[in-house]
Amino acid sequence: MKRFATLSQVMLLLWGDAALAHDENLPTELHFQRQASQRLIFDREQALPLASLDPTKIVDLELMHPVRTSGGGKAEVKQGNLILRGPTSFKSSIWLSGFNPFATYRIELSTVGDGQLGLEFRQHQGSSLRIEMVTTPGRIDGVHWSLRNDQDQVQSEGTARDFQARPVEGPVTFLVQMTAIGFNLYCEQQGTLEWLGRADIVAHLDVRKKEVFRNMSTWIHAEGSRESSYTILGASAELSPGIGQADIRTITDEEGTPLMDEGRLWFTATTRGGGLPHPAQGVFSLSPGLFDFRFEGLIAFDRGDGLLRNDLASHLFFDRKNQEWRGWTTAFSAFGDPQKKEPKEILAVRSLHDPRHGFSTMQAAPIGLVGDYEDPQGVFDSSSGTWRMLLCQNAGGYKAAVFESDHWDGGFHRIAGPVASDSTGTTLQTLDGTRYAFFGSADQSFHVCTFPELQPLGKLDLDLPPWRAKGPSRVWPCIVPLPEGYPAPYLLLTFDRANFPGMPLPNWTYGALHLYHGHFPGK
């Protein structure tokens, strides 16, 4: 941590010098020109590996991936493929990995037979979840899932509605995206990804519980109804950026200075999988001179009640004095409570471990802001000697408001707002030595206000805004001032609200990412 603290101090000096190099200008005078747009949709090159089954690298199948068969079923590696087959009806299961309730699982096949093939998430003693394709030779006829108890009795099951049979023409990938309280199903073939169905199973099996997911393993499961075979090219378990990204916010120090580390800026952004509470809290990075938005990690939150939760819309900061990663998050996982008793609230989060890489957990605790609050960002304000937080409060609609406390993890009371305008993505940033409040809105604009008073100053100027003329526009304005030497003195990162096609409501799967460069006219 000592190296990071030194780097943070260096970047503070760089940002300070950059601020002195500018004349005093208001953010509303900036012009933002769009540079690039990108949407991450289960990008394989962005995936963070948890486990894999690669038939070309298997020497001893039974040792690496234990096999369970019945009815004459057989599993063998042949010519770089894993083949499951049987002379008549058979069952075969191949161990793939452990289990993570936020992971994405893939099976890639080249041929399918007469029966079912898919994934089974199995407890050592307890329930199991089976998700599978129903097939005939050369064709996928349907998708089916079932939840069974330890006596193999069905507790819950379902099928994908309005499923249209499709031929297997070349490799086909069956993809299961776990969403903490349930899952989404997809099929990818010839470069096209199609959503097939989803189910929430938390009322029957809560895989967020440590006692459940620590006791689960993941198996490839096949059943043949008569002489049949399946050819598997590979399988994997991974952390993924999802089918869209949203809620982009810089990771900072305790005073709100953006973190520049390893030559990159760091951000939190949600990885999407449907409505609430299906998203999860992702971590991303970006080289300021490029548009190489990179998925770095996933964070789950632990409130000490035996669950790992997918809370999100977080602000993380590194507290240099205490050498601890801290921040705030919105308890959207309350929507996944099967008893519907958990409140939505703002939580303080902390970790001595750097949560930016891989799969991390942060301890979380209430701070007293219980109710319909969202999108917190806070700073230690040296001018007042207090912690000040900008967030959205539902007061006849979501509106920006400022709260203050002597402590970062509790005791907050409102000192400004709510504003009159609809608000989302409440963001704090310092430009030219002055801290401002920013937020998106349903009125198709990014608002700029004084801080902490929240007096309106105007709106940001964008050449190609991330919304259609009559489309939804409640997105976040993530502004970053850059030191001298980069292509622009300011970056703006935001997203759109284009939902993944074919998924029924609720389907907040937005969106694509958009990068802007900001300049003051004539400079």
**Overall pLDDT level:** 93
Counted up, domains total: 2
CATH architecture classification of the largest domain: 5 Propeller
Gross morphology: elongated
Q: Write down the CATH topology of the largest domain.
A: Tachylectin-2, Chain A
Q: Rg to the nearest angstrom? A: 25 Å
Q: What structural category do the secondary elements indicate?
A: mainly beta
How many helices does DSSP assign? 3
Counting DSSP E segments of at least 2 residues, the number of strands comes to 40
Provide the β-strand percentage band. Answer: over 45%
Helix content, binned percent: under 10%
Q: What is the CA–CA distance across the termini? A: 38 Å
Residue windows where pLDDT falls under 50 for at least 5 positions: 1-22
CATH superfamily of the largest domain: Glycosyl hydrolase domain, family 43
Q: Which CATH first-tier class of the largest domain would you pick? A: Mainly Beta
Q: How is the main sheet built?
A: 11 strands, mixed
Description of the molecule:
The chain is mostly beta strands. It folds into two domains: 322 residues, Tachylectin-2, Chain A, CATH 2.115.10; 192 residues, Jelly Rolls. Helix content is 5%, strand content 52%. The chain is built from three helices and 40 strands. Strands 18, 19, 20, 21, 22, 23, 24, 25, 26, 27 and 28 form an eleven-stranded mixed sheet that branches. Strands 2, 4, 5, 7, 13, 14, 15 and 17 form an eight-stranded antiparallel sheet that branches. The longest helix is centred in the first third of the chain and has 20 residues. The N terminus is likely disordered. InterPro entries: Glyco_hydro_beta-prop_sf (IPR023296). Keywords: Signal.
